[in-house]
Amino acid sequence: MLRLIRSEFYQLFKSRSFYIFSIITILLTLLTVLAVYFGNVYDEGTEILVRMFLTPDIILDLYRGILTVVGPFICYIVAIIAFADEIKLRTFINSISYGVPRYKIYLSKYLMSIFLGIIAVSLSYITLIISYKILVGGPIQPFINFSIDFIVMRIPLWASYLSLFILFRFMFSSGAIDMLIIMLWSILPAILMSINRPIVQQIRPYMLNELSLPSGVLWMGIDQTYFLCLIYVVVFLSLGIFLFSRKEI
Q: For residues 209 and 106, what is the distance between their CA atoms, to the nearest angstrom?
């Protein structure tokens, strides 16, 4: 299993998609910070006012909102990068022909995808901190607290999304089909909100695309959302492994 994981990381770092994705992540974050900064510099000499207005709390609140919306789509892109070549070229058969169990192939891809997602978020956040420090300055402690209180705490939720999107990648060979499913999945909360049935409104908070961290509802001293995320990960991974083990390669 460890040898297979090392092979996956080797292929990842040899992949052009990994570096393109990393550069795009950095550039988009940098452009967002520059747009916020220069969008508030209306006249010459207002830089001091901008520095006073753009506090770390305001920047981090904006980043929190963006990351909350964009996070699931980052997971979707990660799933595409992780499996694009194998699905297109059908190279899974190489590992299978060497007697590697299919569940190990699936799990190694999933672990590599989590690593890729962590790299993407880390690069984005480091770019945010560096660009903010250069343009505005100010204390670094709020950014450290945010990385622990928000980014780290949302990893279970993103892991749930990733397990779902990887499942979609195996179920459908066409990227257009699973993209359509992702779009429908994103508007599902609005559809359910329009259904005025008590049972529908009761189950909504427990659906994956309705989960929020933290939820404030504790069970055995732990936010129940983390238990739900774990359940989603186990269910989606189990279903994905089941389908992959029976899929014609």
A: 24
